[in-house]
Design a protein that fits this description.
Elements lengths: L17 E7 L4 E7 L4 E5 L5 E8 L2 E5 L2 E5 L4 E4 L5 E4 L6 E8 L5
Length: 107
């Protein structure tokens, strides 16, 4: 399977972070988290699931555990199972992040 033009699948919503699934199998989920300036995905955990964030476009602020860092295109972030994590877009541009989770969340 090949998915072309991944960034073009971004979905933005004015009221909250947009999401777009790219691939979902029994073993993995890959999708896009799309942030307008000022939007965030608040601190949360995923029991039994590891999560990767890969920044495709824009700049963001990621928190993993008790550490926060600025991230930009080409940066990869790992949040291990049960590790608190969050992503925010301080602006001024839109932020597009590919998310990969294994195993995937239950639908």
């Amino acid at each position: 399977m090949v998915i072309r033009n991944v960034k073009n699948r971004a979905v933005f919503r004015p009221e909250k972070m947009g999401k777009a699934d790219l691939v979902r199998t029994d073993n993995v989920l890959a999708g896009l988290n799309c942030f307008e300036p000022g939007q965030e995905h608040q601190l949360h955990t995923h029991p039994g699931q590891d999560k990767l964030y890969y920044v495709l476009e824009g700049a963001g602020e990621v928190t993993v555990g008790d550490r926060s860092e600025s991230v930009g295109p080409g940066d990869l972030v790992l949040a291990r199972s049960d590790e608190p994590h969050a992503m925010a877009n301080p602006g001024p541009a839109k932020l597009v992040v590919m998310v990969v989770m294994a195993p995937p969340p239950k639908s």
